[in-house]
Structures are given as structure tokens and as C-alpha cells.
Amino acid sequence: SRVKEDGTDPVKNFEKWKKKYNKTKTRVKIERAKKKKPEWQVEKEYIERLMSRYEEINIKDAVKFSDFPLSKKTLLGLQEAQYRQPTEIQRQTIGFALRGRDVLGAAKTGSGKTLAFLIPVLECLFRQQWTSMDGLGALIISPTRELAYQTFEVLRKVGKNHEFSAGLIIGGKDLKSESERIHQTNIVICTPGRLLQHMDETATFHASDLHMLVLDEADRILDMGFADTLNAIVENLPKTRQTLLFSATQTKSVKDLARLSLKDPEYVWVHEKAKFSTPATLEQSYVVCELHQKVNMLFSFIRSHLKKKIIVFFACCKEVQYFFRAFCRLRPGIPVLALHGKQQQMKRVEVYNDFVKKQHAVLFATDIAARGLDFPAVNWVLQFNCPEDADTYIHRVGRTARYKDGGEALLLLLPSEEKSMVQLLQDKKVPINKIQVNPEKLQSVEQKLESFLAQEKEMKERAQRCFVSYLRSVYLMKNKQVFDVSKLQLHEYALSLGLAVAPRVRFLNKTLGQSKETQVQRSDEEEDEELRRFKQQLKGDVEENAKSESESSTDNEESDADLANNKIALGEVDGDDDLRDLDLLTLKCKDVFNLKERQEEEYHKEVKEKKKQSKETKYKEAKKVLKRNFQVNTKVTFSEEGEAVQLWPPVLRAVAGNDDDDDDASGINVEKAKERLKMEDQEFDKEEYRRKVKEKHRERQLGEKLDEVVAYLANESDNEFDPSTLPDPDKLDNSESGEGEDEEEEDMTKAEKRHLNSESESEEEEKSVSTKRLKVKQQAEEEDTVLDTGLSLAEDEELVLQLLSGRR
Ligand code: ADP
Ligand code: MG
């Protein structure tokens, strides 16, 4: 019945047809399979197509990232991270970088320089079809650990569709576990010292295939502080690599560029023609105030900006440490945090993330937070101390007004700093307005501080160290026109910190009596005798303090954190009149402390008169004292209570009624001392001096705990994180005893660096090359002393991942 009338059998027909069809299909399949290219070849062709578009990149037409010949993986990563349109610096540099050119990129703070180098890094390795077996392909160097973390996080975000491995190589952890994986890491983000350590110590690590070197904050990486380390690193890198340098304050120094052997670099300065060098959305002002008014100013400022996110920059770690404690006690009604180079790594990361998350908070920081950090939604940058130079100023204020956000900045200047500093800023095209403060609107905290200090010896010691450290930082500043230590009103400043008298400093002949050791302190020839003596005094004082701290201090930063978290974070305020002034101080930028023109003038007249008066009396009194007590080269003034304070050479002590240090008070034979110093000068040339200082550092470091911790991350380890697997950070932090010694060591480094130009910038964790090498050796000798976080490698990774993911 299935046979049709014409005799055909449809079923048979179908079977026949099916057979034929299957045959053809198989043939086609086989042919296709024969033709089909391996995946790598498909990718290669894709890459070739992309690269063929490199030459046609038209900056003017590039509005979206997809207008650039970027790999799908990168484009997807950008899209997923909500980056759609390139910023100006990205638009202008990506093309050059893709074509393999060396690039010097300069653009204002917050303008997107990070992606301007991360995108080319990803594309470069993609072009090479790089795999983990190929080892190191790109190296990104950051000046601080925090910035390295941050860059790493951005890389993880935009690079997550690529298969490259990425590692964070910064100080702070166990070197060994890092060593085990570094040779399989394709993209390394690092701080200079730690990288060099691997180059020196890790046998499997080599950079011979490196394709791309990036220096973020290039001018900083290239400056004196990192000079030795960077030179040593560059020696280990192949010359054929591509080099990208980025900063808001770019170096143009031919010397620097020669050091990096750049090949005909493309210089891209996005805002070269811009009227100002700082973001247009940033409002900047400065206030002139006396040193002893600064604390009150800071407190009043914070009290009037409780619903803001503020970063306050200080000159040195000890200022941060003291003011952090003091302000926690003062309970300003807003969380107070502190970030500086003497904190343990765990603490640093914790504070960093805390500040990222908080909506309203004040972060007290040193310049480790000045560069590159992209804290979201910072409203204000307040500079408690005048920055070292205009570039530092630009980077500090650049922590606010990022990308398209607005922000405000306030700089506190001493009368003696105003003229020169404002000039420097103007030269660098920084638009800054002077504003006035009504002294009556300032809340004084002096008495409160005084009572804190009376209650707690440790607090008092911190105040003293803060005082001395600040003076030393001023003294060591290169720009003597801005920074003049002789103009500081020491006694008043001490009082404002809550101290009854200015801390004492061991005096000249005592220091000289220590013979050999003091010879190390010989300064550059061009410095006059008085400056040298001052330095010796300061140092003597610091050493003394270091001892007392290591003996007496059992406390550490952790208790600071408790204070901040438990008391301040609750927004508690002393139930007194603090709140009454609030309205008066909550004012718009231009008139931060609500001062009317008329009041300004009156205030200034008043101040001037006061100054005149005190000058006259000071002069008369000084004359008397000079006759009685001092022989030559001394300048003495009297405080209101009639206490004699020697201003020059600055003794940092009240002379009157304080005779327990009898050789301090009077009768130094300066001429004799001079002669002796001269003789010593002849014996020791500069090289010797350097050697001695280094030796001293080594000694100190031998006694110091190893605080290097390694953080290592591979791109793949994107797992979930269970915080309960972590040990108690409190316990970890408590393992850090002898904090004081560490601190002193770093301070010494800073002090000597300025004069030797051979040490790195104090508080970034990087030390000089030789120091690092010594440290490693020491580590080998005393393996037991390695300070580890106590975590396994996997836990470490998780910890870092968690900390990073908690950022936004
Ligand atoms: P810089 O290094 O120039 O100071 P960053 O690279 O830190 O600036 O970027 C500043 C901010 O701008 C960051 O928060 C970043 O996420 C954001 N940003 C950068 N590029 C873009 C872009 N193309 N689109 C949107 N936001 C961007
Ligand atoms: Mg940056």
C-alpha cells in the first residue's frame, strides 16, 4: 500500500536519499575539519587584524573604547567595570602605546592614568599570546604599597577575561612563598625595593623576556629616594622593552629618561595648555596661622565638617601618631583614622579599606597617601603642614576632586612660609585663594590636651616626639626660603600640644663627648656650624626618646584603633558646649571660618602689634641673658611667663629653673668645639661618612624585627572568601612590639637621606639597595625571626582578595 501509483516507494526513496545525504554530510564535515584552523591560528589572525588597525587609530574619532582596536576580552572587561568612554589621557596615549612606542604621559590628578597604562599592558601580552609559562611579561612599579594594591585591583577588574596571571609584590610578608610563584607571574605590580629583593634573591625569577615596563608616579620613582634601587632594577631589564611613564607632575629630565634608555619617547601632556595644573573642579584656599594655632584650627575645622570625608596631611609619622591619639580623645564626633609608614602592613590595609568604605571620616596621613590613591568621595584635603614643594602639594590635593567629582582643599601656612610657598604654587599654576580665620571662632583644645598629657605619660611622650619630629622635618627641608626653623615659636607650639615646656634636647658638648658616633653626624660643608649643632641636638634627643619608648611602651596602634572605633565612630561628643559653635564654623569654602573683611584687618593689626611688642621685649631680655649665660652664636627669647627659651642654636628647652642638665645651660666652648669638628672633618671624607651612616642603619636593622610580608595574588584565584578563616588581626598586630625602635630607624633614614641623597624617602617602605640586601641576608641567618602573618599562602591570597574586594 505504501507503493504509489507510479511505482515509487517513498520509504525506500527516503532511505536512499538519507544515505546520500549522510554521505555528503560526512564528506563536508571531513573537508571542513580538514580546512578548520587551530584555535591559536584563529586568534593569531584576529590579532593581526587588530594590529593592522593600529596605524589607523584616529584620536579625534575615538569616542568609545570600542573605537580602539582592542581585544574583545579587554573591551568586555572595560564594559563590565562601567568604563565606556576613554578620558583624555587614555585617548591620547593608548594609540602610541599599542604601536609599541615609549610614552611619557602627564595629566592632572584623577584623570584616569591607570587605565592609560593597564589597557596597553593587557593588549601587549594578548598580542604575544602570553601564557603563564612565559613568565614575566609586564612590570608595573608604584611608589607605595597602597597604590600598588589599588592598581592591582583595577587590573583584576578590567583584565579578568584574560588568562594572564598577575602578582602583587610589595613589602610586608614572607618572601619565600612569593618566590615560589613569581616566575609564573605575567604581570607584576610592585614597589621598587621588594622587586629588587626578588631580583637579587629569587633564583627562578628573571626579567629577560619583559615586554613592558610601567612607572606609575614616574617622577617619584625616578627621584633621589628610589635612585639606587631603580638603577639596579633597570640593569636587570632587557633594553628591547617598551616603557611607559605616567604622572601628574611628569619628569622631563633628560638624565632620567637616559637612565631608562627610552627610545624616542612620545611626550603626551594632556593639560599642557590648561590654565591650571590642578583639577578644575577643585577649590583651593590657604590660611595663614601661627604654629601654635594650628591644632585649634584643625579641631575647629573638623568640628565644622562632621558630615564630610576629609584627609589631613602631616609632615611626619609622629605628628600623625600624636594627633591621631589626641583627636580620638577629643571626640570630635566623626571617625578619626590614621595612615602612616610605621604601621604594620595589616593595619595599613585595614585603615585604607576603612577609609574607602566610610562616608564620613577624617584620615590623618603622611605623604604615603599623597600619591595616586583614589579614595572615593573625599570632600576635603587639609594640609596641616606646608608640603615639601609644589608637586607634593598638587598630589596631596589630588586626593579629592577626582574624575568628574568636586572637592576642596585647605592649606595651613605659617607667616614665614606664606610668601615663598604661594609663589611656588603660582609658578606651578595652582589657583589658590587666601582666606581668613576669625580667631574668636577657633575652639581651643590646649587645656584638654594638657590634661590628657598630665593623665598619661605615654601621651606626653608622644607629644614630645611629635614636637621634635616636626622641628626636624622643617629643619631637613631643602627649600630654606619656605622652611626656616629659626622662625618657629617653639615654646608656644609646645604649649599648644599640651606640653608644659618645650622638650629638651641634649646639648652640644654632651653630643660631642660621644666622639666617634657624633662624627657620623657631620653634615655637608656648606652648612654652617650652627645648623650642624642643631642637627646633632635633635638626633641626640631622638635617640634618647627611642630608648625610653622601647622600654616603656607596651601599647601599639591597635589601641588607637579601638579608641577610634569604639568611641569616636559612635559620633559621641562631649556633652558640653562643643556643639554650640558648630553653626558658626559650618561655612562655605571661600569663608571657611566665617570671617568678615573688617574682622580680618583688625585681627592682623592685632597680631602685628603683638609681634612687635614681643620682639622688643625679647630683644632686651635676650641681651641680658646673653651677657650672663651664653658666649657666642646664641639667640634667646622669653616667653610671657619670663621663661628664657634659647632660639638659636635651638635648644628646645626652657633654660630658666632647669639646671639638672648642667652642661646644657651654659658655658660651652664653641670655639673649641668648632676646631674639633674641623679636625674631624679632615679625617673623614664624604664617602666615609656615608659608610658610617649605612653601618649604623645596619646595626639598627639587625636589632629590628623583620617586618616584610608578601602579598601575592594570581588572577585565577577569584574564589569566595570566608573571613572566619582569618586569624584575629588584633593578635597579629600585637606581635609587633618594639614599635618605637622601628620608628626611630625610619626617622633616621629620613634625616640622613636629605643630606646624603642616598636613602629613600622615609616612610614609604622602600629602603636603600644595600639595606635591603642586608636585610635579606639577615633573614636567612635568623629564620625564626621572620614576622609572618601566620597565614598560609592560600589564606594570604584570600585575605588580600577580601580586602581588595571590600573597596567599593
Ligand atoms: P590618575 O591616575 O590620573 O590620578 P585614576 O586612574 O586613579 O587617575 O582614575 C581616577 C578615577 O577615574 C578612578 O576612580 C577611575 O575609576 C576613574 N576613571 C578612569 N578612567 C575612566 C573612564 N574612562 N571612565 C570613567 N571613569 C574613569
Ligand atoms: Mg594614578
Automatic annotation (TrEMBL):
Gene3D superfamilies: P-loop containing nucleotide triphosphate hydrolases (3.40.50.300). A motif (Q motif) lies at residues 63-91. Residues 63-91 form the DEAD-box RNA helicase Q domain. Residues 94-268 form the Helicase ATP-binding domain. Residues 294-446 form the Helicase C-terminal domain. SUPFAM superfamilies: P-loop containing nucleoside triphosphate hydrolases. Residues 596-625 form a coiled coil. One of its GO terms (molecular function) is RNA helicase activity. Residues 516-561, 655-796 are annotated as: Disordered. It catalyses: ATP + H2O = ADP + phosphate + H(+). Pfam families: CTE_SPB4 (PF13959), DEAD (PF00270), Helicase_C (PF00271). Residues 552-561, 736-747 have a biased composition (Acidic residues). Keywords: ATP-binding, Coiled coil, Helicase, Hydrolase, Nucleotide-binding, RNA-binding. Residues 530-550, 671-681, 696-708, 748-758 have a biased composition (Basic and acidic residues). Its EC number is 3.6.4.13. It is an enzyme of class 3 (hydrolase). Signal peptide: none annotated. InterPro entries: DEAD/DEAH_box_helicase_dom, Helicase_ATP-bd, Helicase_C-like, P-loop_NTPase, RNA-helicase_DEAD-box_CS, RNA_helicase_DEAD_Q_motif, SPB4-like_CTE. Belongs to the DEAD box helicase family. DDX10/DBP4 subfamily. The Q motif is unique to and characteristic of the DEAD box family of RNA helicases and controls ATP binding and hydrolysis. RNA helicase. PANTHER family: RNA HELICASE. This is ATP-dependent RNA helicase. It comes from Periophthalmus magnuspinnatus.
